[in-house]
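Regression check, magnesium ion case 270:
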Amino acid sequence: MSAPLLEMRGVSQIYTLARQTLFAPKPRLTVLDKVDFAVGQGEAVGLVGESGAGKTTLTRILTGLEQPQEGQVLFEEQSVWAAPPARRAAFRRGVQVVMQNPRSSLDPRMKVGTALLEPMRSLRVEGDHVARMHEVIGQVGLTPAALERYPHEFSGGQLQRIAIARALMPGPRVLIADEPVSALDVSIQAQVLNLLKDLTRDLGLSLVLIAHDLSVVAYSTSRVSVIASGRIVEAGPPMDLFRMPKAPETKALVDAVLTVEAGLAGTALA
Ligand SMILES: Nc1ncnc2c1ncn2[C@@H]1O[C@H](COP(=O)(O)OP(=O)(O)OP(=O)(O)O)[C@@H](O)[C@H]1O
Ligand SMILES: [Mg+2]
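Current build output:
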């Protein structure tokens, strides 16, 4: 593989919690333990793990919201935290995130158009923002009429499209989607996953798709890392993980998918 576009090397994150009794030492919680993770130019990779495994913490570090206590984050082969201001600005525009719940990530009092313009102002992006807005709203499959409306006028699936449009506004090179479909109806999950897959291909973006469900990432990524208790326990093409899981945590994720599918099939027959 050529040099990764966005990468973390040996990242550890340890939180110190409140002490439980007066004289007890403060407990320490290792949330990430020497994690290596990378995505190449135009590549779509997945990260899966059960709840509490450290996925969102990894996202926060990969997007620069949190500084790791140990290890490095590199964008275009340069350390993000040691970079001069101009490089940091390129990183902030270049790596955008789509969160789990579009209803809480969009301000209900803001028209969609205003919400799309907001990152352009905070990231100080130059250019014709109105033209850009029309371009991205089309890329996510909505019409410009959406720009004049408020979040409550949309369905969950449409709102997630709007959140994706907002992430696209500054012209990122990497899109990180943290559980982008787990708050959506099963019937529209595939549409949003398809959209992410198409955007990655059509715009040459890199995608980091995060989920607790292996089947969600298997469909749109070529390489998947499994995280458990803050450690990457296994990585490989998703079909290999399905067919020959090596780590017990990967086996548990595969079994969970099969159980859910068997359960759904059972319901359909009942
Ligand atoms: N600021 C913090 N202080 C203390 N503990 C934290 C903090 N942030 C997260 N944690 C803990 O770190 C662990 C990992 O949390 P994280 O949100 O990264 O997991 P996750 O894999 O995203 O889970 P989920 O699938 O539920 O979203 C959890 O045990 C969580 O309680
Ligand atoms: Mg999470």
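Comparison notes: The chain has one domain: 39-67+78-269. The domain at 39-67+78-269 is CATH 3.40.50.300 (Rossmann fold). No diff flagged against the previous build.
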